Structures are given as C-alpha cells and as structure tokens.
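Can anyone check this?
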Amino acid sequence: MRITVVERGIELAAAVRPARTFWARLRGLLGTQPLAPGQGLLLEPCNSIHMFFMSYPIDALYLDQENRVLRIAADLAPWRIGPTLRRAQRVLELPAGHAARCGVQVGDRLAFDK
C-alpha cells in the first residue's frame, strides 16, 4: 500500500503492510528488522500502541476516520507506551524520524493507494 500526504502530494511510504486482524496487530513489528525508508505498518482499528519487546524506535501517526493526523509520537523508543487517543481509528508506524523528514504535521490528511 502506498501512502501520500494529500496537502503536499508527498509520498510518505510506498510499502505499507496492513495489520487488520487481532493477531497481526498484536504481533505488529515485534521480531522484525528496523523499518527502511518507505516502509510502514498500518494498524487498524487502533487507538494506542506499546513498544514492549521492540528493539528500535519508530514514529507513530495517529489517524482519525478521515485519515487526518491527530498526533505524531515521534521517535517512540522501545519499552515505552504511546498515547491513547479515543478519536484515533488507526495508527501508522514509520521509521523513526521519517515523519519530520517528510514534513508531516498534525491536521494533514493521508491518502492510501492499494
């Protein structure tokens, strides 16, 4: 799945894997190599994440029903708990620092191309 920032036409990620089942969301990125630029994981439905047993940091973008960025948890370190946002419908996990490099801001709307 490819994800772009609608307002600026910036490609945020070209290879995003969806995690829609309970087991896929539970496993998440556990036991994987750090994400490369252009890679990501989309957890849905999801409004909170944890970094227990992770070995590398990530950026977590919390998205609402219209895929607007509600919050960016940048450089979320291993063994930390991310925020819980009741309005969030999904969380996009990206390589640490990637959201800032792409200029993603709260309020941006993302588009998903399958």
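Reply from J.R.: I decoded it. The longest helix spans residues 22-27.
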